[in-house]
Design goal:
Layout (H helix, E strand, L loop, with lengths): L2 E8 L5 E12 L9 E5 L37 E5 L31 H14 L5 E7 L1 H12 L4 E7 L9 H13 L16 H15 L11 H16 L4 H12 L13 E7 L10 H10 L4 E6 L7 H4 L5 H15 L1
Parallel strand pairs: 3-4, 3-5, 5-6, 6-7, 7-8
Antiparallel strand pairs: 1-2, 2-4
Helix pairs in contact: 1-2, 3-6, 4-5
Length: 342
């Protein structure tokens, strides 16, 4: 797994990370001028493993149906780069990383970050790889926050933006949710002021938190073929526990806080890329019903934007479970970008 490293990375707050590390994966090869590169960004609790079966536990990449030979992001034609976002815990600098100034884990002392910080770190990674302009940024959910942030922070760095299951501002009062989450975790006996790495971790409470999140995402719809309610519940709990064993609780708090500060609606006029916005009707987090309002704001800001609605029973997982319902529209969108670049 490749890593990008940089020193003295200044955050939007003014604080400095002495060392920045970003873990990433690459699928396909860049062409001569690296003009065929697509950046994909993951959701809050996922990783940079977007395609293939290369993780130790043989886990499928979260966009495996989208990235690869003959797929939407055809790796014979495009070079796809996926990085683990700043503040996460899959090889990228975050609360579970070692602070080089102390030699100990950052833990709750990890500085507050923003989505501008997240995409600025990705920008450094891409420039180090020789990318001067992306063909597109493509992402869903919290990755979609990154896609919108890319559009306003680096408006000339991509030809297109493909944003799914997302919005240009936080819709959930995530600042308050982050503090509520912290309070819930703090009631666990191993919390230790957020320094739980020394006391055995928070697997049980993180499992319960994940179960609630999966239910809100509509994950239970994927278990309909399991006849027994007890077996469905056991499967749900096992999926949640697998995640809880590897995801860092302080990362979850850090990213929730970053969500709470996200709002690029006042800056939509900075977007110069063409934008394709996709929402699903059954998604409780970003329902298709918000599409009209967002599209009106994009139009007033002068953004070249199109909207596509996916009908599905799979909730927040709709675009992942049924990519065939939006990939043809996205393929035409990408082809248009390639024409305009030429």
């Amino acid at each position: 797994m490749p890593h990008f490293q940089s020193r003295n990375f200044q955050l939007e707050s003014g604080e400095i990370l002495p060392q920045l590390t970003l873990a990433y994966e690459r699928y396909g090869e860049p062409n001569a001028d690296a003009s065929n590169v697509i950046l994909v960004a993951h959701g809050a609790t996922s990783s940079h493993h977007a395609a293939g079966l290369v993780t130790p536990d043989r886990r499928m990449g979260w966009w495996d149906e989208v990235i690869g030979p003959g797929r939407l992001f055809d790796t014979g034609k495009y070079c796809v780069i996926s990085s683990n976002m700043l503040g996460s815990c899959y090889g990228t600098t975050g609360p579970a990383s070692v602070d080089p100034t102390t030699g100990g884990v950052y833990g709750p002392r990890f500085p507050r970050i923003t989505f501008r910080d997240i995409v600025t770190a990705q920008h450094l990674l891409l420039r180090s790889l020789g990318v001067k302009k992306l063909l597109a940024v493509a992402a869903a959910s919290l990755g979609g926050y990154q896609a919108f942030q890319w559009g306003v922070a680096f408006p000339d760095f991509m030809a297109g933006i493909l944003a799914l299951d997302t919005a240009p501002r936080d819709l959930f009062d995530s600042k308050a949710a982050a503090e509520k989450l912290r309070d819930e975790l703090a009631r666990h006996g191993n919390w230790n002021g957020g320094n739980y790495h020394r006391t055995g971790g928070l697997e049980d409470v993180m499992t319960d938190i994940r179960i609630a999140t999966l239910k809100s995402y509509g994950f239970e719809e994927q278990l309909r073929d399991i006849a027994s309610p007890e077996a469905r519940e056991a499967t749900l709990r096992q999926v949640a526990r697998d995640w809880a064993r590897e995801f860092d609780a302080n990362s979850l708090i850090t990213l929730r806080r970053a969500m709470g500060s996200f709002d690029v609606e006042p800056e939509l006029g900075r977007i110069r890329a063409s934008l394709l916005y996709i929402l699903a009707d059954s998604d409780e987090w970003f329902p298709a019903s918000i599409g009209k309002d967002v599209m009106q704001k994009l139009a007033r800001a002068g953004v070249d934007a199109a909207f596509h609605e996916v009908e599905s029973r799979y909730g927040h997982y709709a675009t992942t479970r049924e990519p065939e319902k939006w990939m043809p529209v996205a393929a035409r969108f990408l082809e248009g970008l390639a024409v305009r670049r030429d």
